[in-house]
């Protein structure tokens, strides 16, 4: 397997990723034909994010009909359907009960009903859902991250090639790629306005996310599916699920992916039975092929200082970026090179759908986000492998890792591979001891 | 006060009471923690609310309002206190003697996926970005912790306290040239919240009343409310989620939009970039400028009224 992109390959991909900044959009003969009537949409994973993505699709104003839904849980299905139907009504929502698929396997049937699919189940399901959507020839909006382990990434990368061959549009919800401050800054970075990028720091430090408490009637599988953030086969740890956003920006700035990772992490403050197996902090040194270094830091420490942003240093200047529309480029004397106007900026969660659906209704092929999203996810997974093992991981070692976290069987009475001990606590990685690849 | 606490002893007897014999300033400790905040008495009285400025018809007309006495937070609520409420595990780790059962039934915020400090820092800085429901549930948490009925102010209470007896646009006069001595606004904040209490207070001892962060009130906003609001303890119960009245300026507000009578409103656009449906009942990911200041009525309502106040269901937000 080819594991490290050349700069040239990356630029080809990122031209698509950045919405045609480097290459004009193009109409591909024989790409899927836009239907005369409305596009049929299915949503896989009906939590808050999947439901939100359906709203954003409708808010594009293009003719769309929601025709099928799939979720593991009946209650999530019901609340999602109600929210969507209450807002958009029967003209846009035609999902009779028999097209609301509940359980682990419903996604295949739901996809079969649609032209376009939203993939928003927990990240561990992304590889199989993405592969199926590609095999069925669907246009795709997929949430990040793309997988939770190397086995999943390999599946996504293979399917991404098929998607390109089939000219299936794939937009991935790394929404900073659809946010103007990032686009404007990256255009200038790639143009050399900061010289060569020699270093950087990317952060997602905050207080952490939701916890869902165990209920006595739940099987182990149901509990882990409900409290999925704290189990690696579903979430990938917060370095993957959340910090991938910032790590992806480092890769974008560097126009490549790191060749090795080393780091330190652990469970310092989030150590309860409710907190599964994931760490609460990871600090990584990512080294790129040219020897430049990106420092990556993510932690879930309530009470401590928050920081979620990206900074890079080049031979001619530096830049500060954040999801709050910061984009501040200065030279080393502090003179401004570019300052993005933060006011009245579009909503990137809406822009990613606006651009995707505008392309779909014209029957064009323009977006191939899956490969970069998979490789940025892989970068985060490599970071987790480094903190969990305490070892230095090369890209190839990480990507070729054979440890598969996914359960042998998906069923409510089946057992995940990670199980609590007699004291109710889950085992977690011990740096220096644990085998992760 | 004694009479009230005796009457409501059933519900309050298990709390460590911060009972006051006299109506004076006090420091409230959040039990079991090092976190404190200061409250100052605002005497009962009558004042002229609003303005007759034709450019701001929602401030018209000036009308007489009579208010009961209350204490008001000397400062805006900071992250130091608010973060304890946010995260039960964190609160447990910070509280000597454990949490007990009192806060078990409390509805806590979903922890925000985004950084709700917006990169502006926490320590000593005002908590920001919470919904009015979140502000109200913070008061509920304080009640469960202290046994004291805290709430957010009415619009009338806020303006009365801000004016501190003045009739001019600001408590220090008509002209905004002195504003930067009292408030962090767009003109001096460097685009960020600042630690509370660094500027001069108003005559009644309230810091940052015109700046730093805007402050929630309990009132629903109607531009013509003053034409029929009544004289005694007026407030406008909200039937819709938007708009509510917010008062005071923030670190982002331009100086000519600040004044004791200025009425601002909450806006669904503050949740625009929330990518989830239903949108969060707790957070405004595009409102780094909204915070809260709490009050405590001298004569608290009945326990039933207190429960009803805290148990108001949030309105779903799509």
UniProtKB/TrEMBL annotation, chain A:
Pfam family, one: GFO_IDH_MocA_C3
Domain GFO/IDH/MocA-like oxidoreductase as annotated: residue spans: 182-319
InterPro entries: Gfo/Idh/MocA-like_OxRdtase_N, Gfo/Idh/MocA_oxidrdct_glycsds, GFO_IDH_MocA-like_dom, NAD(P)-bd_dom_sf, TAT_signal
Domain Gfo/Idh/MocA-like oxidoreductase N-terminal: 40-164
A GO molecular-function descriptor: nucleotide binding
PROSITE patterns attached to this UniProt entry: TAT
Name of the protein this chain belongs to: Predicted dehydrogenase
Organism: Algoriphagus alkaliphilus
TrEMBL record, chain B:
Span of domain Sulfatase-modifying factor enzyme-like: 38-263
Name of a matching Pfam family: FGE-sulfatase
Membrane-spanning residues: none
An MF annotation (GO) of this entry: formylglycine-generating oxidase activity
Protein name, UniProt field: Formylglycine-generating enzyme, required for sulfatase activity, contains SUMF1/FGE domain
Organism whose genome encodes this protein: Algoriphagus alkaliphilus
